[in-house]
From TrEMBL:
Domain of life (superkingdom): Bacteria
Organism: Thalassolituus pacificus
Family classification: Belongs to the KAE1 / TsaD family.
Cofactor dependence: Fe(2+)
Protein's name in the database: tRNA N6-adenosine threonylcarbamoyltransferase
Primary enzyme class: transferase
InterPro entries per record: ATPase_NBD, Gcp-like_dom, KAE1/TsaD, Peptidase_M22_CS, TsaD
Any one of the GO BP annotations: tRNA threonylcarbamoyladenosine modification
UniProt domain Gcp-like: residue ranges: 24-311
Keywords: Acyltransferase, Cytoplasm, Iron, Metal-binding, Transferase, tRNA processing
Binding of substrate, residues: L134, V135, S136, G137, G138, D167, G180, N276
Subcellular localization(s) per the UniProt record: Cytoplasm
C-alpha cells in the first residue's frame, strides 16, 4: 500500500510517500522558522497561510522524486491533531479532498503517534513492547507502548515541555529562534559543572516531570552573571551547558525508572528534542547499563515531518480504519484514547 502523508500541525509543512513493502519513498519538509523568527514564536494565522502556499508544490516534488503520479496512490494520511487548529485544517482539508477526488481512503493521524512510531522507519526497528520518551515542543511524556494504539501514559510534564524549556531558556539569553538547537550548539563550548542546576522531581517517586523551575534558575543565573545587563559569551555557553545537562540527566533518570518499573528495556526517543546529541548519548548508556537498547529516528525525523504521518496512517489504513468524509480536526486529543491495531508493515 502506497500512502501520501501530510503534516501541517504547527510550523513545518511535511509531505511524504510511504510504501508498506518498500518503505519510505520520498519526503520533504518545509520549515517556517524564518517566517516566525521576528516574532520569537509561531504566529498561528501566518502558519496556516504558509501551509496553504507550500503543501501542493511539496506534494508535486515528492511525487516527482518517487517517480509516481497521484493515480498510483492507495491512500492519504494527514495529521488531524493535536496542534494549531488553523494549521491542522489546511492539511485535513487538502488530504480529505484529495482522497475524495481520487476515490481513496483517507485517515486522520494523531501527531504524537506519528512521532512515537518514527523509529519504525529506520533499519532495525524496535520490537514491541517498548518505552517511549516523547520530547517535543509541546509534549514531554513517558509512554509504555505494547503495540500500535496500545499506549499507557506512565508520566508527563506538569508544566513546560522539554522543548519549550529549551526554547524559553535560549530566548532569555538572546539566542536565535528556535532556541533548542542554538542552545545545544552553544552548550558544547560551555562548562556544565560551573553552576549547580536542579534535576527537578527526581528526589521523589513517580515518572512526572517539571521544567519551569529550571527555567527560573536560568533567569536568576543570568541576573547574577550579567554585568550592566550584558551576559558574556562564556557565561551563555556555561549556562547552556548546565541547563542542557540538567534536562538530559532528569530525562535519563526518569527513563531508567520507567524501564525498571515495567521490566521493559527497549527505549525509544522521539520528538524534536530527540535530535539532541547529548540526550541520545546519555540514553544510550542508560539503556545499555540495564542490558537494553535505545532506538531513535534520524534527526530530521525527530522534528515534524510527513514520513511519520504516512507511516502511522499506513498502519491504520491497512488495518481497515479510515476517516469519514467530514473534514475534522482535534486540537486537543489524548493519545491514550486511540484504538489498537495490529502492526502489518515492518518498515
Ligand atoms: P509537538 O510535537 O509537541 O506538537 P512540535 O511539533 O512543535 O511540538 P517538534 O517539531 O517535535 O515539536 O520539536 C520542536 C522542538 O524540538 C523545539 O522546542 C526545538 O527547540 C526542539 N529541538 C530541536 N532540536 C533540538 C536539539 N538539538 N536540542 C534540544 N532541543 C531541540
Ligand atoms: Mg516545529
Ligand atoms: Fe511535533
Amino acid at each position: 500500500m502506497r500512502v501520501l502523508g501530510l503534516e501541517t500541525s504547527c510550523d513545518e509543512t511535511g509531505i511524504a510517500l510511504y510504501d508498506s513493502k518498500q518503505g519510505l519513498l520520498a519526503h520533504r519538509v518545509y520549515s517556517q522558522i524564518a517566517l516566525h523568527a521576528e516574532y520569537g514564536g509561531v504566529v498561528p494565522e501566518l502558519a496556516s497561510r504558509d501551509h496553504v502556499r507550500k503543501a501542493l508544490p511539496l506534494i508535486r516534488e515528492v511525487l516527482h522524486e518517487a517517480g509516481l503520479t497521484l493515480a498510483e496512490l492507495d491512500g492519504v494520511a494527514y495529521t488531524s491533531g493535536p496542534g494549531l487548529v488553523g494549521a491542522l485544517l489546511v492539511g485535513a482539508c487538502l488530504g480529505r479532498s484529495l482522497a475524495w477526488a481520487l476515490d481513496l481512503p483517507a485517515i486522520g493521524v494523531h501527531h504524537m503517534e506519528g512521532h512515537l512510531l518514527a523509529p519504525m522507519l529506520e533499519d532495525n526497528p524496535p520490537a514491541f513492547p517498548f518505552i517511549a520518551l516523547l520530547v517535543s515542543g509541546g509534549h514531554t511524556q513517558l509512554v509504555q507502548v505494547d503495540g500500535i494504539g496500545r499506549y499507557t501514559l506512565l508520566g508527563e510534564s506538569l508544566d513546560d515541555a522539554a522543548g519549550e524549556a529549551f526554547d524559553k531558556a535560549a530566548k532569555m539569553m538572546g539566542l536565535p529562534y528556535p532556541g533548542g538547537p542554538a542552545l545545544s550548539a552553544l552548550a558544547t563550548l560551555g562548562d556544565e559543572k560551573r553552576f549547580k542546576f536542579p534535576r527537578p522531581m527526581t528526589d521523589r517517586p513517580g515518572l512526572d516531570f517539571s521544567f519551569s523551575g529550571l527555567k527560573t534558575r536560568v533567569r536568576t543565573t543570568i541576573l547574577e552573571c550579567a554585568v550592566d545587563g550584558v551576559l558574556a559569551e562564556q557565561d551563555k555557553a556555561d549556562i547552556s551547558a548546565c541547563f542542557q545537562a540538567a534536562v538530559v540527566d532528569t530525562l535519563a533518570i526518569k527513563c531508567k525508572r520507567a524501564m525498571q518499573q515495567t521490566g521493559i528495556n527497549r527505549l525509544i526517543i522521539a520528538g524534536g528534542v530527540g535530535a539532541n546529541k547529548r540526550l541520545r548519548e546519555k540514553l544510550r548508556t542508560t539503556a545499555e547499563a540495564l542490558g537494553g537498547a535505545v532506538f531513535y529516528p534520524r534527526p530530521e525525523l525527530c522534528t515534524d515531518n510527513g514520513a511519520m504521518i504516512a507511516y502511522a496512517g499506513t498502519q491504520r489504513l491497512l488495518a481497515g480504519e479510515h476517516s469519514d468524509l467530514a473534514v475534522s480536526v482535534v486540537p486537543r486529543w489524548p493519545m491514550t484514547s486511540l484504538t489498537p491495531v495490529d502492526c502489518v508493515a515492518v518498515n
